[in-house]
Write a structure and sequence with these properties.
The complex is a heterodimer of chains A (250) and B (275).
Chain A: H1 2-5, H2 12-35, H3 38-43, H4 48-60, H5 62-65, H6 71-77, H7 80-83, H8 90-119, H9 130-157, H10 162-176, H11 190-194, H12 204-211, H13 216-241
Chain B: H1 2-18, H2 21-48, E1 50-51, E2 54-55, H3 56-75, H4 84-89, H5 93-97, H6 103-110, H7 118-132, H8 140-166, H9 168-171, H10 173-190, H11 200-206, H12 217-223, H13 230-233, H14 236-262
Antiparallel strand pairs in B: 1-2
Helix pairs in contact in B: 2-3, 3-7, 3-8, 8-10, 8-14
The chains are: A mainly alpha (250), B mainly alpha (275).
Amino acid sequence: MRMAAVVPRSDVLVLAATVGLRLLQFGVFVGIWRSLPPEQLEASGVSVPSLLTYTAVSQAFGTLLNPKTTLTDHLASGSVSVRMLWPMGVVSQFVSEMLGSVLPVTAISVAALAVVAPLIGVPLAPAGHPVLFLVSLVLAMIVGVAVDFWFALLMVQLGNSIWFVNEVRAASTSIISGALIPLNLMPWHIGHVLQLLPFAAMAFGPLRIYTQPEGAVPTLASQAIWAVVLWVGLAWWARKSRDKVVGLGG
Amino acid sequence: MTDLLIANGRLALEPFLRGGWQAFGWVAGETLIQISSVLASLLLAGRFKGLGPWTAADLYFLIGFILTARGISNVFSSQNVLMISRKVARGQLDHVLLQPHPLWKALAAEGFSPFDLLITLAVGIGLLGWSVTEIPAAHGILWFGALVLNIAGSATVIVAYQYMWGAVAFWAPKVGEEVNTASAAVASNLAPYPLDAAPRPVVGILVSVIPVGFIGWVPCRSLVGIDSTPMVATLIGPVMAVVFGAIALILFRIGLARYVRYGNGGRYSDFGHRR
């Protein structure tokens, strides 16, 4: 984890681009939420300040709300066979490497948002209990890593189609997890359906707990259930997929 | 040029003729990527019937406009021709320079892939066609001429923007690739939103160094009639497309002169490993 946390000087520009993208996305959504008709928002039980806070927290913790390990890359290149020789479990090595690389980015994003948000009148104070938010964030990451591993196994099953799996994953998760738009604001009852899926436990769960004073316990329970279901299912599917892992990629 | 395009079009058709799921997987993947990039905007239009001065029909027009412009630009720039930093950073520009054609012609022909984005283009044009019937400002041959001109301008801005930032790879190959990936993400993530109420510094960045505003927001504002002088304003998008095209061309030519002298900066080790 410590090794992955070291940011080489050559990657500083990339890091700045990543944080800059989050700030720009935050700014664009601040404008959008402020353009919405307040009466329609009130009918949905949401206020503009809570939406602004939702987006600020979503962008600040974005890398944790959609965690991505390097497992798919190692599976695609075949270098996963070398990783199997490491004196660590597969899950622990990929998770610790991921935490090492995302925690510094998250710390910088949180600091940047903490400075920028008040300057443009975005409130950051939590409406819910901060400790419950942190518990929910940890559960979200547990679910998120499980989802990442499920996609990695899907790639194994599809014969190392890394581009297809990565793109489908990137394209779908930010919307259906509620990281961009709160699920309860989606039209045509789509949000009700999406709240039943595990992706909601990755972003909508913790963001809702941060921005709403009630409803934390059912959200945490739902996240915990998904964490158990996904990891049990993952263990079973990993055993079934083991023979298809290729140790000589391209 | 026509022969080159036909030859590359035939090559692009090969995966489909071979059958199997790969070609259809690409089409499905490309379609999903493009649709999901505008999905948030689509959902907001469906839920709130408008954002500030934009009606729901205006927002659908914006989404259709972007999908169409993006589809057209990508038809001529697949195979990493749009993500030019990858060709530069990996030394693949050598393959293009070796061809007995001007660079622009070789790149346009190599990137020509008319089939991967067929569904995206169809969805974009369909959405654009439907929303035009709902927009009061859409009337007259001049307006439709302005629409075509602005779509061409928007496609040009997409390519110019990617080449502006892709040129970083001439000086810093590895970082250039990463920065270009991030710049592509910005264009994909932020283009389908109206920027009217965004904070001034954000709008300033998105119409200058990261000209995402000129991909959809600025041209569509004038086309749907939000601007007070719509017909004059419809020229802003195409004019800025020429400006950004010129900037990209200058930066790329400066970078190319360096590439001709130094190559891709020793990106590969002696035994062929990419650093």
